[in-house]
């Protein structure tokens, strides 16, 4: 599935894509292409990439590569798939009712859910907000347990 | 008026004093003065049996005046403010907008006062307006000229009377009256023009539908059906192109349209019939040429260019004198017309733009679209900077930077409290830490000792300072310095 979307394995690539995506939301998925939940998420991402192409761009980051480990630590990625959102090299947070606002953990239930989330973050970003509220109802938000500092 | 005897009594303060047993000094001077007042008031009362009632009457009258509701046509609301309403700022504002709106509706009528045009009967129903002063519809029924009835109405005495009363009622001002009516002199001029036009129109019956603004989008009959935005555009357009309106035809063929526009534009301005005939024949030939010679774009562009030139020449001639003599126009050959070059309509750049400058056009285009983005959006300043950087990189001015491996984006971390800038610093600090601690890894594992109660302990043991700092603090808080216990890491 990852052949449909841009996959990144080097830190340089990730840096350049963060810096070069201007006035568009950048969706970075951290995960493994072999993981089942990642595959679900990737499927939704690839299907909706064209729909959101005018205001968002999507890229996949392979979490197993060594150069990316810096980012894994920096972004506190402990569960995959984790999706981080950037706008103009600024990190966008979303309050989805879970403990972790900095990223989206897990897959989406529907393609439309993903598009809604992306739209909400984009609108917030255009207004100058760094954190937005999740438009999805709680039953469609994947739940996870966040342990303190990965312990 | 003294209503009760209580007023004559001393004020209540004294009563209290009385209660306390103090001697009361009745305010005799006050009593006298109040008696005097009473004495004075009685004769005054008898003089004017109803002084208060008179005042109350007038005040009630005033009140009555105020309570009378009347409808203000300008503000479209009922008010009980009487004549004062005309001076309120809201009313003044709505009056000015109301009058300017009607004035703009009349602008087309005014145009036809100066340039009479023939009105075909089927379009007569559209050529009407509502006169707000007379509260009546002015319909062109059975008039052969556009806005004829409208013009007559606006010049009539009845209309003037209604206009004046309206202005008085709503505080319009006498200077505005002349804007909404036509004088006798204007009407006389119009009549003259009309007669002359009538004599002309006898020769040009076949081109009735083309003459005049019947199909003209600038015309007022379509006024009511055009929204405000278009109206303002059309007005400005109309004012600048008095003599050269382009009528909208039913045909979608633009070139055909242009050829006829040329004809009608000419006719509307030129009074000589001979001219029209000559042009007729010329454009007819051209028109047939258009339809026959429809070889790709070349025939059309040929026709267009020809028409454009004819048009230009006509305008020039009209600028000098309206009554130019018969003109023999030369047809310019289409030799130097490039069919693929494109023109204004196809959006091609003008010939003074070189091919190399074409890139600049694109840059200009994109630049204007960027400025629409919200300047308050997230990372706006950074984005602008980055865009400039990328432009420069594209042009090759700035070399593409090799990003250093230690660059990290602005990220708000999960377990940090504080600003996002701190998160990066925190991360860097943490990143350095594992390098240090690796050396002490072996030692640190030994530091984890089972807890032994200090009361049980007799000997002094040494404690490793850092991890058990808090324990040290708790111990030292309650006890004197001698009794501090330390655990050694050399093993127990």
Dominant shape of chain A: globular
Average pLDDT taken over every residue of chain B: 63
**First and last CA, distance of chain A:** 32 Å
Oligomeric composition of the shown chains:
heterodimer
Shape category of chain B? flat
- Main beta sheet of chain A: 7 strands, mixed
The neighbouring-strand order within the major sheet of chain B is: 1-2
Q: What's the N-to-C terminus distance of chain B?
A: 109 Å
The SSE order of chain B reads HHHEEHEEHHHHHHHHHHH
- Beta percentage of chain A is 15-25%
Helix content of chain A: 25-40%
How many helices of chain B? The count is 15
Number of strands of chain B: 4
Helix/strand order of chain A: EHEHEHEEEHE
Instruction: Please estimate the helix content of chain B.
Output: 40-55%
Count of helices of chain A? 4
Kindly report the greatest chain-chain contact and the residue count on each side. A-B, 36 and 27 residues
Sketch the major β-sheet of chain B.
Answer: 2 strands, antiparallel
Determine the structural class of chain A based on helices, strands and strand pairing.
alpha/beta
State the secondary-structure class of chain B: mainly alpha
Describe, in plain words, how this protein is organized in 3D:
Chain A: One of its GO terms (cellular component) is U4/U6 x U5 tri-snRNP complex. Chain A: Homodimer. Interacts with the U5-102 kDa protein subunit of the spliceosome. The complex is a heterodimer of chains A (151) and B (492). Chain A is an alpha/beta fold and 151 residues long. Chain A is 30% helix and 23% strand. Chain A contains 4 helices and 7 strands; from the N terminus they run βαβαβαβββαβ. Chain A has helices at 11-20, 36-48, 69-74, 111-127; strands spanning 6-8, 25-31, 56-62, 82-87, 90-95, 104-105, 131-133. In chain A, strands 1, 2, 3, 4, 5, 6 and 7 form a 7-stranded mixed β-sheet that branches. In chain A, strand 4 (82-87) and strand 5 form a beta hairpin. Chain B is mostly helical. Helix content of chain B is 51%, strand content 2%. Chain B is built from 15 helices and 4 strands. In chain B, helix 9 (254-269) runs antiparallel to helix 10, helix 9 (254-269) runs parallel beside helix 11 (298-320) and helix 10 (273-292) runs antiparallel to helix 11 (298-320). The radius of gyration of chain B is 47 Å and the shape is flat. The interface between A and B is medium-sized, with 36 and 27 residues.
